[in-house]
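Entry 12.
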Amino acid sequence: MTYNFDEPVNRRNTASMKWNVEANELPMWVADMDFKTAPEVIAAIKSRVEHGVFGYSEVPDEWYDAYISWWQRRHGFTMEKEWLMFCTGVVPAISSCVRKLTTPNENVVIQTPVYNVFFNSILNNGCRALESPLIYDNGCYNMDYEDLENKLADPQTSLMILCNPQNPGGRIWTAEELSRVGDICAKYGVTVIADEIHCDLTAPGADYVPFASVSDTCKRISINCIAASKAFNLAGMQSAAISVADPFLRHKVFRAINTDEVAEPNALAVVSTIAAFNEGERWLDELNEYIESNKKLLEEYISNNIPAIKVMKSEATYLVWMDISGLEEAVKAKADYSADRKLSEYVATSIRNSTGLFITDGSYYGKAGEQFLRMNIACPKSTLEEGLKRLKSGIDNLL
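Predicted 3D structure (tokens):
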């Protein structure tokens, strides 16, 4: 490999949200990598910093060109410049769109388990999160189209938030699956917000399908949220894009993000994104290979050492979704366990208390996640190996 992903980076005492933990704790929870971003991106940021003036910034043509070229080259989908709008993040984009495109007490459909902040974006804007649980079958998630249509057919439903690829399960939806979602949503006049922030973090040989690319219907009814932030570990730069093909819908989104004042870049937001998409491709390819090798290491370790846990096969993201239903009988026998406690919450808390390993309680992602844990493996192998040892120790304490 050209790039060294084995290099540990000490992130303590850097105001890192992820690493704001006790000295004995190992955080492997929030979707934030422990790798330095691509050297090419660092060089571009350094060059901009050396200029020394950090006044108000505009979005130049190079930013639009970088997005358009990347999606053509990597994903075979051609966006047009006028479709694209700058936003300070995918979450601000989703929240602004929910606020603009709904009225209080309307439904926003989400397929659970799913990224927990979707719930915040919905509930904080006075709407109801209407869960359509995915079907968990043989270690894989599939869509329940019958349930989904029932939820979308409700006259109070105005939006659907689609996670593509799926977080936390790492499922890449196929063109056929996405087309079917688009057709059902169009049938009932429901707009789709597609969160595609994890789209570039795919297993070697696996390709994500942009929702807007699969049909004219999907393109017409969708708001697509994309960014370099997850793939290149740039979340702190507060830079994302919203792509909306339909001019009427685009105007509503434009008004939403400008009313909420989340449509203006900071001095480094644009520079870092342009460098990532124009110069970071080789780094990203090697990153995805490294993450895939980490997944294989984890799968083999858990299979050999923690057979009570089943790992969901993941096609995308650097997050691992682990089925802990095999621990239920042992946990229910614990003296401090009560019927009102969720299995995932109990197990995650127990592991953290006994070993210092901080991984995510699956119940944060909806009721369908109550028998799962989520673990972030975007870290050097030495860190992952330590995390796996702690995971085994924590599970052994429960058995």
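Annotation: The chain has a mean pLDDT of 97. The chain has two domains: 26-37+281-398, 42-279.
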